[in-house]
Backbone:
């Protein structure tokens, strides 16, 4: 399969100084990571810094969230057009932290997905089950249900310009990584579900794994047939560990 994607979700971490150090480290090391698409997702205030520092590198920029509306009276929100002005090309939609902490539902997630594609940016649709759902044997139905909710609104063909990130909620920030076979089982089910509606798009669809990915766990995860890279949280905050994960994806 063509290139892998390694994406770093910084969440609400960093400071001007920490961002300067991280971007500098990424700039230095990026050239050594070949045939892998690297993407960073800084908090909004650091987008200008990221755009400036990463220009001339192959590292792409994404945002962690966006408003589905175009402009106007939406206090506290950030539009896609604004993000685009800072060189942003990827948008995380439906991250489990936004679903859980900010009550984003499937309808809002689908609206953000559609709005992102409308301005020719790429949504990374995040899906994943909680520990309770996994223990009840609901993993595949929860994950395919989250994807189907988007298909119902955007259609299966929309996956020609989208990425899916499977992030089991119980593995995020816990140090508990899904085993390569646990992850592969879900990734395979995701691809099969998309294929049942949009076979052509399913073949080339990138499906990333997220949840406590480290340089140590990345290689075996990325070797799985349906794992096309990673969405990395904690380990993306240090240039060395993020670049090492990029190397593992080669
Ligand atoms: P961690 O890698 O810190 O578990 O975070 C994963 C994640 O939520 C990325 O979006």
Residues:
């Amino acid at each position: 399969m063509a290139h892998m994607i390694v994406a770093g979700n910084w969440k609400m971490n960093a400071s001007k100084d920490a961002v300067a150090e991280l971007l500098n480290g990424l700039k230095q090391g990026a050239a050594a990571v070949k045939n892998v698409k690297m993407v960073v997702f800084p908090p909004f205030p650091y987008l200008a810094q990221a755009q400036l520092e990463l220009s001339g590198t192959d590292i792409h920029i994404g945002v962690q969230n966006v408003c589905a509306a175009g402009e106007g009276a939406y206090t506290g929100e950030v539009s896609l057009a604004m993000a685009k002005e800072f060189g942003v090309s990827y948008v995380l939609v439906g991250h489990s932290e936004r679903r859980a902490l900010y009550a984003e539902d499937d309808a809002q997630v689908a609206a953000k997905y559609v709005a992102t594609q409308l301005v020719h940016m790429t949504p990374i649709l995040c899906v994943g089950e909680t520990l309770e759902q996994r223990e009840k044997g609901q993993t595949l139905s929860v994950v395919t249900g989250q994807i189907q909710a988007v298909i119902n609104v955007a259609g299966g063909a929309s996956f020609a310009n989208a990425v899916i990130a499977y992030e089991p909620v119980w593995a995020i920030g816990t140090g508990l990584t899904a085993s390569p076979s646990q992850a592969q089982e879900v990734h395979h089910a995701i691809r099969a579900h998309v294929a049942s509606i949009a076979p052509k798009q399913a073949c080339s669809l990138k499906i990333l794994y997220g949840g406590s990915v480290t340089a140590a766990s990345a290689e075996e995860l990325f070797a799985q047939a349906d794992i096309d890279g990673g969405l990395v949280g904690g380990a993306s905050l240090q240039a060395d560990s993020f670049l090492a994960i990029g190397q593992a994806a080669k």
User: Anything to note?
Assistant: The chain has a mean pLDDT of 97. The CA atoms of residues 29 and 243 lie 7 Å apart. The pocket of 1,3-dihydroxyacetonephosphate is lined by residues 9, 95, 167, 172-173, 210-213, 231-235 (CB under 6 Å). The beta strands are 4-9, 36-41, 60-63, 88-93, 122-127, 163-166, 206-210, 229-232.
